[in-house]
Amino acid sequence: MTPPSERSSLASSEPTDGACERFRADTLEGLALTPKRLAPKYFYDRAGSILFDQICELPEYYVTRAETAIVRARAQEIVASWGPRVRVVEPGAGSSTKTRLLLEALGPARCVEYVPVDISSEHLEHAAAQLRSEYPWLKVTPATADFTVDLPMPAAEEGVRTVIYFPGSTIGNFEPSDAERLLARFRRAAGPGGIVVVGIDLKKDPNVLHAAYNDAQGVTATFNRNLLVRMNRELGADFDVDAFAHYAFYEPVHGRIEMHLVSLSRQTVSIGARQFRFTEGESIRTECSYKYDLPGTERLARTAGLHLLDAWLDEERRFAVLELRPVLWPAPRSSVT
Ligand code: AVJ
Fold this sequence. Notes:
Layout: H1 17-32, E1 36-37, H2 46-57, H3 63-80, E2 86-91, H4 97-110, E3 111-118, H5 121-134, E4 143-144, E5 161-166, H6 176-190, E6 195-201, H7 206-212, H8 219-235, E7 244-251, E8 256-263, E9 267-271, E10 274-278, E11 283-290, H9 294-303, E12 306-313, E13 319-326
Parallel strand pairs: 1-11, 2-3, 2-5, 3-4, 5-6
Antiparallel strand pairs: 6-13, 7-8, 8-11, 9-10, 12-13
């Protein structure tokens, strides 16, 4: 069995026509802005997903290892308060190691349904088929949706608790105000008795953060530049990929990693009839990856109508798995069956 992919929750497979048109429209819009920017969800074409899997294996990129270690060590504890009948909903096609660990911890007795949600139905069906074959007891009900816009969730059956699981620090890719809206959407989708479980990367020594996005092998640089390769292939752009430098740094005022592609010369790039001029040194911002401290996660949760019930951290306090519940349902841990 091949190891499960650690692809991002925003991953997409080869685009359908609609997805391609969205990519084109977003790209043309983002490159017309000053400063220029692109959305990080577009990193994850086939090549980008493979590169991201490689990033997860890099010695400098602690994020995935730290989160997986937490879930591996604490899975029983994490699911202990979820009750006797649980529906697990995962925005992003999921099927990661972490998801498997939680589904196994729940087991056939408690896990009544797993609902992966993704914008790409092809990617979803693949993930669903894989899980069904590994866990024949598991009822897998994929749902196609862009969870950044809408997360339609049929009300759970009587006595079944909905747990929205959002691992991978994908939440870090959202501006804090968008992250708040996203968490509020998760709260509504989970319902008043529901639970939201989020994996979030923590603030730490900026040199550690810097290294994680500037690996010695240059895989992150290739991942970043692959966005140019993708625009050339899918949009007919004529980017000279080598004329852009990968540049990533931690910006401590906003508490975020910024990734850029910086033009190494004055140049003009065409996408169809549109032309985009770059001065020497001009950048395209391709990603923000926000880092939080625990009080910050608590504030974020509160503004979304959730409260922090529990947080599991790795030994080095690099990463946190948070259990959030609606504020209108402040059941103390001890009273939960
Ligand atoms: C998938 C958003 C969690 O921000 O660390 C890894 C993506 N970008 N290296 C992150 C990423 C560059 C990753 N997330």
